[in-house]
Queue: 2 jobs
Job 1
Amino acid sequence: MNTLSDKEQIDAIRLIIQKAENTGDLELMASVLGEDLTVIIPNVPVIHGKPDGVAFLKSWFDGFDIEISYTPESIQIESDMAYEWCTYDQTTTDKQTGEKASEIGRILWIYKRCEEKWLQSFIIWNTL
């Protein structure tokens, strides 16, 4: 059984995601994604399932160096579901051209508890 509180576990996942994105570590990122993953993001068709989510992330990590930081705003935990709202500040650098792009936005992560472990089930974000 996990000795960390639910909130502490979700805080730890956010740091894992931030580290994975900043280092391009696909395996680390995949470790916090649920099999039933759904991703809704600007200008991309809805992504269904962990394999398609990991494939999208691989293309993203292959194409860009990412510098991102997340600022948590609220975490709501209800039984085996948790909802986390964050803002993010991101700069990407295209690995081919060196072109940089910056954005800020809001994100909603929805987690499900699966066998005593929290995993991301929905990822929804938009730019501000």
Job 2
Amino acid sequence: MESVVSGLEGSLLKNNDPFSYFMLLAFEASGLTRFTFLLLIWPVIRLLDICGKGDTGVKLAIFVATAGVSMSEIESVARAVLPKFYFDDLDKDAWRVFSSGERRVVVTKMPRVMVERFAREHLGADDVVGSELGVSRFGLATGLVQVGDFGGSICDRIAAMFEDKQPSLGIGRCHSDSSFLSLCKEQVNTHYPMTKNQKHIADQEIQPVPVIFHDGRLVKRPTPFTALLILLWIPFGIILSITRIIIAHILPMCMVPYVMAFFGGRVIVRGIPPSPPSRRSNSGVLFVCTHRSLMDPLALSAVLQRKIPAVTYSLSRLSELLSPIQTVRLTRNRHVDAERIKKGLSEGDLVICPEGTTCREPFLLRFSALFAELTDRIVPVAMNYRLEFFHATTARGWKGLDPIFFLMNPTPMYEVIFLNQLPAEATCSSGKSPQDVANYVQRILAASLGFECTNFTRKDKYRVLAGNDGTMEQPKKNGRTVNKVVM
């Protein structure tokens, strides 16, 4: 197929209303005040849509969400936050039909800057047609879109893009949002069954490029109802968070799991935890954990009912102050870090997360091999969590608030899976290289969680979130690389 033009909202995305994405932009780029104000005017936006003035409602949402916000901040949210929520709402069948074209164009109601990165990198789009935000000489969005960006001008821009040729296929859902369909030789209305040929394409097993790294505080896409729940919960969440922090500090660790359960926290334990180190042992156990949030060592300590010092690469001073367990700060100087880990193990058990940074999606980043060089007493521990409202880690915001946001969730849940201690033949003492040991631990932890291993590192994560381009391989599945990702 030569060319495909598809609407985004209601076509490639299942949801036809872009309002929740403006709510995300307002929250992540500007804060709670703008988020609240945008929610308050939602009834007006909805009324305009009912009255057939949907374009005016979208313009109003754009103005409230972006006016006075720096374009660099909007671009950062579009790069690091929005792709995850777009991807979760993606209609895979529509995308497969879209991806069959040699040239692919996405049409959106939202400003192009909010969509372009996701459309190009994850949907494989060649062009994105959307409104253009006005920008002041100070680099701030005016909240206004350029005149003529809505309605019939979409047809004009697409016609100019293809010159004298008709696009081969147009994909849309609602007639009012799909005026460009009249330009296409063939049309797909995703409200209705596809033709036999289109269905054959949609049934293929190809997958879009997954979102592996993302940022932002909100766990769920803030539809009006979800946003209202979040706003109503925040005052109670703050009180609950402070209460939980106090409990973790004043109670013995053996009592914390039971009292936390009364306040909504829950830990699911699988496998058999190892016994505490004996006094005659000259070296403690090194617990090697997957890194889901900064609360991983605390969840482990709660399960073991004793305080296990944690090795950390980057932790804010406030998080260290709030932590009820000892933290050992690493420097990323290999020699210095090795000495600190050895010292910690000589004093007892220690927990380390070799990924070096958190990853929210079901993928494991490449493990640093340093831990394998320092001890043969290695116990792999798989960690995972479930949160309702707020993520516990962020790369863009103030990291000192990470533990507070985690504990603001109504019923945070951790799953801790203990694997068997590595046998001697699987450690460096049998002649294996440190990287082989690290790769083996990564594989067995990924298998226990149903995750996939990657070669991505902490540097890759921050390069992607910062918007620096580079080519990285996708995770391998069944021993082969699925495809390439350009980030």
